[in-house]
Design goal:
This protein is an alpha/beta fold. It folds into 2 domains: 2-172 and 225-252, Rossmann fold; 173-223 and 255-323, UDP-galactose 4-epimerase, domain 1 (Alpha-Beta Complex). It is built from 10 helices and 15 strands. Strand 1 (2-6), helix 1 and strand 2 (27-32) form a beta-alpha-beta unit. Helix 4 (86-106) packs parallel to helix 5 (140-158) and helix 8 crosses helix 10. The longest helix has 21 residues, at 86-106. Bound molecules: nicotinamide-adenine-dinucleotide. Nicotinamide-adenine-dinucleotide binds at residues 7, 9-13, 32-37, 51-53, 73-75, 77, 92, 96, 115, 117, 169, 172, 185.
Length: 324
Amino acid sequence: MNILITGGAGYIGSHVLNLLSKQTDHNLYIYDNLSTGRKESVVAGELIQADLEDLETLEHVITSKSIDAVFHFAGSIVVPESVSNPLKYYKNNTLNTLNLIDLCIKHKINRFIFSSTAAVYGIPADGVGRVGDPTFPINPYGSTKLMTEQMLQDVGAAHPDFKFIILRYFNVAGAAVDGSVGQCTPNATHLLKIACQTALGKREKMQIFGDDYDTPDGTCIRDYIHVDDLAQAHIDGLNYLNGGGTSEIFNVGYGKGSSVKEVLEATKSIIGNVFNVEVGDRRDGDAPKIISEAHEISKKTGWTPKNDNLQVIIKTAIDWERRL
Ligand SMILES: NC(=O)c1ccc[n+]([C@@H]2O[C@H](COP(=O)([O-])OP(=O)(O)OC[C@H]3O[C@@H](n4cnc5c(N)ncnc54)[C@H](O)[C@@H]3O)[C@@H](O)[C@H]2O)c1
């Protein structure tokens, strides 16, 4: 197949690219403006450095490369920025995706794998995000993703040949087990990335945002998923569609959580030093606990996580951070 990977120079896209290049002989075309991605992460395929807004270039790539499937990662991902600059998010995440889907329909591209997020759930009452439960995003970032989900479902209903997989990611962390790619996102806000940077002395200190939540140790609980397992879910999703599967929304997580303190203690014990952690105030909009209910993706696509282990997640993240 000829596959277009938007945002393939970014954190998650580059891990999917890495696995696709090792597991398949698809032709891979990476479409990325390098706003947060980097050339060095494009470990396979052909990089087209362009913006999704540039519809002429996008359409030229789609037609000249005879694209038959799209993995769509490109987007803006920083929640607080989406609150202060919502239109940037509606433009880059919703409008640019609308234009991309439009081109897919025009050129009969019938496979579309989309990066969504647990942020569509908002703050689930019992701490568990379930596909099918009502969605109440609490920030513009989550809303832009939910709007795209809705567009895909409506377009899929109108064009039965157009099949999509929406993957709602939980807390993505770690780096490729084979060491070839990892997270390079500038100013990343992900807990594990910041913990590794602090542990290695790249940051002076870090903060825990609140330790008085109604959880066993008072800090927030999240469902951390290793980025290679998440990446594999995309490939399994495409194979599922190619095997006749129907369009689906899947959670991708391990269905269990670790607290902020647990992550920090594990990082300290793996790295063997004590680093500076301050306890600050709670942040607006942080739910005490968000974990996934994620049986469906395994049942339907055969997805089998290989790195469901906090130690492995942290170790790969530290190894990567050391190499950067
Ligand atoms: N990282 C997470 O924890 C997480 C969680 C849930 C969902 N997601 C979603 O996964 C996707 C990938 O996230 P990531 O963590 O790899 O982020 P990232 O910032 O590392 O990657 C995004 C990539 O898209 C590119 N890009 C952005 N806007 C573009 C545009 N207009 N045109 C062309 N390229 C553009 C960037 O240069 C970058 O390479 C995003 O859609 C994000 O919303 C990420």
